[in-house]
């Protein structure tokens, strides 16, 4: 699950917004302004209802952010680095750079999100109560009460024992402690997520048939959870298959770097060889990596722009590049493949570039072990230039 809108950083953590956040903002704002508030609290102007609806949706996004920041803070306190967080309609996803080192740490990281939502529900409820005592307008009180209810529902839904929800992480931690096998625990958590998605889809279809169009929401939600659960299951299988392997064991030690000042035309004439890596590091004036370019992106630049466009213009900036250390466990790298430039991760040791890991490197390692498992982001043929998932940035889009 990836953020398609990167608003920036909070407390040093990259924050992205999934498209579903925009959907829920529109649903909440429009639903309150056009239907619920006028029906329950008539007599106000359309502007007042619109302001109340927009305020509620904005505060809901802040609530989702608080939920995920809680995960990030507790993860850091438990020694797990955080790549970033992506908000979505039911909370979000904290992209952790490493795995939790114990079931207890996994449990703490999982439970703090619903706890934060519950705390926000109490806070909004208290504000609604004090606002009522202070004689505030009924729309203000209504919005605060509505947010209290939404945060309660957010906390409860996220505690369902199914990945990718927080309750799925709780289930994984419990199974990990009980059975002592983190990978199998993650697999069962993902399967529970699939089971929940099937129930939501079936329930939504039944509601569509016998009641109203409201069932469409449950169908869409079930499909959304199913996609995330399938990705979790693939990752769990890959992690089990690659346990004990280090990044240095699979990385390609040599990858050609290119000068950031080269024009796209110069690069295509001199360096875009068919047998090279699909991703190349881009070096600045000081010889340090400033970003990466993909051959796919470069080829997508219109011919008339190639003589004037430099590689730095089309490069993925450094803060959006997935990186790894040579001694890291390869399993810790898997979550980063979906965020990497075409699944490629640069390997650094004390700021010195050592190599690159591609999906085909990981696929080759799996094949050498005689294992049959799908690696996230990897091509089934082992080809370097694997097509990205449908929600990635596409060729020709600038990443400045």
From TrEMBL:
* Superkingdom of the organism of origin: Bacteria
GO terms under biological process: proteolysis
Keywords per UniProt: CBS domain, Cell membrane, Hydrolase, Membrane, Metal-binding, Metalloprotease, Protease, Repeat, Transmembrane, Transmembrane helix, Zinc
Q: Which cofactor does it need?
A: Zn(2+)
Chain ranges passing through the membrane? 16-35, 47-67, 109-129, 141-165, 186-209, 215-231
One GO cellular component, as annotated: plasma membrane
Please give the Gene Ontology molecular function terms for this protein: metal ion binding; metallopeptidase activity
Give the UniProt subcellular location, in the record's own words. Answer: Cell membrane
Coiled-coil annotation: which residues?
Answer: none
Q: Name one Pfam family in it.
A: Peptidase_M50
ATP-binding listed as a keyword = no
Q: Keyword Hydrolase, does the record have it?
A: yes
Q: Which SUPFAM superfamilies match?
A: CBS-domain pair
* Amino-acid positions noted as binding Zn(2+) in the UniProt annotation, renumbered to this chain: 67, 71, 166
Q: How does the UniProt record describe the way this protein sits in the membrane?
A: Multi-pass membrane protein
Active-site residues, Swiss-Prot/TrEMBL: 68
The record's remark on the cofactor is: Binds 1 zinc ion per subunit.
Which PANTHER family does the UniProt entry name for this protein? MEMBRANE-ASSOCIATED ZINC METALLOPROTEASE M50B, STAGE IV SPORULATION PROTEIN FB
Q: Which family does it belong to?
A: Belongs to the peptidase M50B family.
Name of the protein: Zinc metalloprotease
- The organism encoding this protein is Saccharopolyspora erythraea (strain ATCC 11635 / DSM 40517 / JCM 4748 / NBRC 13426 / NCIMB 8594 / NRRL 2338)
């Amino acid at each position: 699950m990836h953020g398609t809108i990167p608003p920036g950083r909070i407390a040093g953590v990259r924050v992205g917004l999934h498209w579903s956040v925009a959907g829920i903002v529109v649903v909440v704002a429009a639903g309150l302004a056009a239907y619920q508030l006028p029906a329950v609290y008539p007599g106000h102007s359309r502007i007042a209802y619109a302001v109340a609806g927009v305020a509620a949706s904005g505060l809901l996004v802040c609530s989702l952010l608080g939920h995920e920041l809680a995960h990030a803070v507790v993860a850091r306190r438990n020694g797990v680095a955080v790549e970033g967080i992506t908000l979505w309609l039911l909370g979000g996803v904290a992209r952790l750079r490493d795995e939790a080192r114990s079931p207890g740490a996994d449990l703490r990281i999982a439970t703090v999100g619903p706890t934060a939502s519950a705390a926000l529900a109490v806070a909004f409820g208290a504000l609604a109560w004090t606002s009522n005592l202070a004689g505030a307008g009924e729309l203000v009180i209504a919005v605060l009460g509505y947010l209290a209810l939404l945060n309660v529902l957010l906390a409860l839904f996220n505690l369902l024992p199914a990945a990718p929800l927080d309750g799925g992480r709780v289930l994984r931690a419990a199974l990990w402690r009980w059975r002592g096998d983190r990978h199998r625990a993650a697999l069962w958590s993902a399967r529970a997520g699939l089971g929940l998605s099937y129930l939501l889809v079936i329930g939504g279809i039944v509601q569509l048939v016998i009641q109203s169009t409201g069932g469409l929401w449950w169908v869409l939600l079930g499909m959304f959870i199913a996609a995330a659960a399938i990705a979790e299951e693939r990752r769990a299988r890959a992690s089990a298959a690659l346990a004990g392997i280090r990044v240095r064991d699979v990385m390609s030690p040599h990858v050609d770097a290119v000068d950031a000042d080269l024009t796209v035309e110069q690069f295509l004439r001199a360096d875009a060889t068919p047998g090279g890596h699909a991703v190349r590091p881009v070096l600045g004036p000081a010889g340090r990596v400033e970003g990466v370019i993909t051959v796919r992106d470069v080829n997508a630049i219109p011919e008339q722009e190639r003589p004037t466009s430099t590689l730095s213009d089309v490069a993925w900036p450094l803060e959006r590049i997935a990186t790894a250390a040579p001694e890291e466990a390869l399993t810790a790298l898997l979550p980063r493949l979906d965020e990497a430039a075409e699944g490629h991760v640069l390997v650094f040791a004390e700021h010195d570039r050592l190599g690159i890991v591609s999906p085909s490197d990981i696929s080759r390692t799996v094949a050498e072990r005689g294992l049959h498992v799908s690696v996230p982001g990897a091509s089934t043929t082992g080809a370097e230039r694997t097509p990205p998932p449908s929600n990635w940035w596409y060729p020709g889009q600038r990443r400045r």
